[in-house]
Amino acid sequence: MATIHKPFRPKPKPRFPIFIFVICVAAIALLYLISSVISTNGFSFPSSIVTIKDLMRPGKLKRKVHTIHEKYLYWGDRIDCPGKHCESCEGLGHQESSLRCALEEAMFLNRTFVMPFAMCINPIHNKKGILHHSDNATSEERWAASSCAMESLYDIDLISENVPVILDNSEMWHHVLTTSMKLGARGVAHVEEVSRFNLKHDSYYSNLLLINRTASPLSWFMECKDRNNRSAIMLPYSFLPSMAAEKLRNAAEKIKALLGDYDAIHVRRGDKIKTRKDRFGVARSLHPHLDRDTRPEFILHRIEKWVPAGQTIFIASNEKTPDFFSPLSVRYKLAYAANYSKILDPLIENNYQLFMIERLILMGAKTFIRTFKEDDTDLSLTDDPKKNTKIWQKPVYTMGEDRR
Ligand SMILES: *[C@@H]1O[C@H](CO)[C@@H](O)[C@H](O)[C@H]1NC(C)=O
Ligand SMILES: *[C@@H]1O[C@H](CO)[C@@H](O)[C@H](O)[C@H]1NC(C)=O
Ligand SMILES: *[C@@H]1O[C@H](CO)[C@@H](O)[C@H](O)[C@H]1NC(C)=O
Ligand SMILES: *[C@@H]1O[C@H](CO)[C@@H](O)[C@H](O)[C@H]1NC(C)=O
Ligand SMILES: *[C@@H]1O[C@H](CO)[C@@H](O)[C@H](O)[C@H]1NC(C)=O
């Protein structure tokens, strides 16, 4: 650097101070230009240059430009890990709750969130993914085999318009890590059990380039337990669903256009109607009315007052029995994702992508009926609470039409 600088530094001549000043400014400007050109050719130059590099990457012009002047928040490279969900993982909704919690913290701290570049897919939700079951595969390999790229699910640029994010396999992240090492104590802190309030207001933390946080070992979203305090919620539940990757949003739009004027029901059976036997051999359930309330004859009765006869109903469900809902066709025109396999099959690589498209279709319905009531204004198929009450009760099937 010094050798380049020399020719531009004239000998001090007190008679022309302004002239010297102008020369110096020009020299500094030229240096910046030269160093930025060098940097795009592979040299690294401390601070400020990455933006130019990013801008010059072809095809990435619409991407939000991050600069190293931003500060970063990292919660680790896997959602809900460390903790009990490191190897297996929970369903999409559960992981989204965790991701949303981390994003909210980034908003609170005014930091760019460093997002894991992949999301783990629970094997029971991945009938389409290719899972190589090998006994001597390491847990690392098994995880990789059952995960999908975050960008196959979400539009990272769209998320960044609301909360700036980078992925932890990006060049920018690499740059943040090397810079944080150079900065030493001002660069990074690995923090555990520090409240977000302290991370924001304690100047030791607030001045750091990178906060590497270890979230609750139970689930990341445990850090957002105060969601009961409505005014503390910064992102609604619908935020991540609506941030679906562009090709998923496009597919949903096409299907919505084909459905025309439609209502929708989301029928959760599968996992939720699980029963277990008590010590007397009697089946018990956490949602005692759910099996009954999600059967077609009960659904017909329940939704009569909300959905007019003849209406098209889009049904999203994890019920496996074929034609399970066909009794509803006495009054309604039924549609499922399977009706649109021409659009979906070439697109879908895993079930999380399918869930995301189905959710967008559900969200676009004129009248949407959930399985459980989540909000006071929600329409729902059952009055059982969604929350795990931990009370195992005898399932109820009666209401004149007892099936067992
Ligand atoms: C948030 O951070 C950006 C830079 O990353 C800064 O320009 C802005 O002033 C900050 N806002 C607040 C409210 O601190
Ligand atoms: C372990 O993996 C190797 C190759 O990946 C394979 O050849 C071998 O048969 C496997 N061993 C067992 C016990 O599965
Ligand atoms: C973050 O902290 C954890 C726990 O201290 C550590 O294992 C991990 O390597 C750190 N990650 C980074 C990127 O510094
Ligand atoms: C609820 O959240 C708001 C905003 O973060 C905060 O100002 C308020 O003190 C919280 N209230 C309670 C009872 O925690
Ligand atoms: C969807 O497919 C089912 C048969 O699986 C059929 O009965 C129904 O009419 C189709 N719905 C639409 C909207 O095409």
Based on CA inertia axes, which overall geometry fits? globular
- Quote the distance from N terminus to C terminus: 85 Å
Order of helices and strands: HHHEHEEHEHHEHEHHEHHEEEHHEEHHEE
Helix/strand/pairing category? alpha/beta
Compute the average pLDDT.
Answer: 80
Helices, by number, come to 16
Distinct compounds present: 2-acetamido-2-deoxy-beta-D-glucopyranose
- Rg of Cα set: 27 Å
The biggest beta sheet is recorded as: 5 strands, parallel
Query: Uncertain regions: pLDDT < 50 for 5+ in a row?
Result: 1-16, 33-61, 128-133
Q: How much of the residues is beta strand, in percent?
A: 5-15%
Query: How many DSSP E strands?
Result: 14
In helices, the fraction of residues equals: 25-40%
Widest sheet: strand ordering: 5-2-1-7-6
Transmembrane segments: 16-38
GO cellular component, one term: Golgi apparatus
Keywords: Membrane, Transmembrane, Transmembrane helix
Protein name: O-fucosyltransferase family protein
Q: Overview of this structure, please?
A:
- Keywords: Membrane, Transmembrane, Transmembrane helix.
- This protein is an alpha/beta fold and 404 residues long.
- Helix content is 35%, strand content 13%.
- It is built from 16 helices and 14 strands.
- It has a five-stranded parallel beta sheet, with helices on both faces. A five-stranded parallel beta sheet has the order 12-11-8-13-14, covered by helices on one side.
- Strand 1, helix 4 and strand 2 (112-115) form a beta-alpha-beta unit.
- Helix 12 (246-259) packs across helix 16 (351-363).
- The longest helix is centred in the first third of the chain and has 24 residues, at 17-40.
- The structure holds 2-acetamido-2-deoxy-beta-D-glucopyranose (5 copies).
- One 2-acetamido-2-deoxy-beta-D-glucopyranose (NAG) is lined by residues 333-336, 339.
